[in-house]
Amino acid sequence: MATSKAFAPAKVNLTLHVTGQREDGYHLLESLVMFADVGDRIALSLSDTPSLSVTGPMGQGVPTGPENLVIRAADLMGVAAEITLEKHLPAAAGIGGGSSDAAAVLAALRDLTGKPVPDQGLSLGADVPVCLAGKAAMMRGIGEDVTPVEDLPELHCVLVNPGVAVPTGAVFKGLARKNNPAMDPLPAQPGFGALIGWLKLQRNDLEKPAIAAQPVIGEVLEAIAATQGCALARMSGSGATCFGLYASAAEAKAAAGELQRDGWWVAAARLS
Ligand SMILES: C[C@@](CO)(OP(=O)(O)O)[C@H](O)COP(=O)(O)OP(=O)(O)OC[C@H]1O[C@@H](n2ccc(N)nc2=O)[C@H](O)[C@@H]1O
Ligand SMILES: Nc1ncnc2c1ncn2[C@@H]1O[C@H](COP(=O)(O)OP(=O)(O)O)[C@@H](O)[C@H]1O
């Protein structure tokens, strides 16, 4: 029986500009996305009797029925599979856990069966195409326009989620304005200092409405910014996960130690 194992990394939106809104209500975005070396793990095998088992430290509350994005991904490919999903990422957290799981299943089933992935998986979620690309990229449109970005410096980060789920649609609805300024052009082959300098001039436009919905996100950002060596603290996606950037793995690891609180999920990671 054909089997496959896959890693579904956390997606981090280093920037997220909301620059407009389509007639169907979806928002136009510009985002620099990178992927962390922390994530979910998936094992799957082709089978006549499809099934899903959700395990892992963050598995609680993740749907086990047909609404789970890994099942929807198998359905989209028209393939029956037995899937085990080991959750390490918090759900509904702005780091694309479900989207990354879906993308990993799409890629695994494409490789096992030779079938193409319909429409980059966009029908499963706006974040699925960038997760399918799986490497640093500029994401535009509602997420369907993905351009890989080469030559970014090594980045180390801490990811912090305060244990509150923030529904993506509700945060978009809370935006004061939909047509915010576009991102500045990314400098060519930036070193760490140049990339941080550029990032500081960009934004996550969803930060403000997310903090209004869940004020603890503001506390997380302050706590990250106060850690030794933190070059930038920002929210990812629609939250509530926030990240801090550091020049070294040692600083990111020390920050993760400092940021431990009851109910907070904290991970040090490398971004690429
Ligand atoms: C905001 C982002 C940024 O990367 O990340 P997350 O916070 O989800 O991680 C994504 O665009 C989210 O992608 P994804 O989570 O796949 O979104 P979807 O399931 O397609 O959409 C959930 C809801 O968010 C709103 N939505 C989503 C994407 C978009 N470009 N405009 C929107 O207005 C819509 O109300 C939609 O019903
Ligand atoms: N495999 C999955 N992992 C996590 N959540 C999932 C999954 N499949 C479906 N969901 C549902 O999708 C919603 C969004 O989850 P997720 O993709 O992790 O968040 P976000 O889009 O904020 O990064 C959750 O509320 C959860 O109920």
Automatic annotation (TrEMBL):
Biological or metabolic pathway of the protein: Isoprenoid biosynthesis; isopentenyl diphosphate biosynthesis via DXP pathway; isopentenyl diphosphate from 1-deoxy-D-xylulose 5-phosphate: step 3/6
Catalysed transformations (reactions): 4-CDP-2-C-methyl-D-erythritol + ATP = 4-CDP-2-C-methyl-D-erythritol 2-phosphate + ADP + H(+)
Sorted UniProt keywords: ATP-binding, Isoprene biosynthesis, Kinase, Nucleotide-binding, Transferase
Amino acids binding ATP: P90, A91, A92, A93, G94, I95, G96, G97, G98, S99, S100
EC annotation from Swiss-Prot or TrEMBL: 2.7.1.148
GO biological process: isopentenyl diphosphate biosynthetic process, methylerythritol 4-phosphate pathway; terpenoid biosynthetic process
Span of domain GHMP kinase C-terminal: 199-261
Function field: Catalyzes the phosphorylation of the position 2 hydroxy group of 4-diphosphocytidyl-2C-methyl-D-erythritol.
HAMAP family for this protein: IspE (MF_00061)
Protein family (similarity comment): Belongs to the GHMP kinase family. IspE subfamily.
Protein name (Swiss-Prot/TrEMBL): 4-diphosphocytidyl-2-C-methyl-D-erythritol kinase
Organism: Thalassovita mangrovi
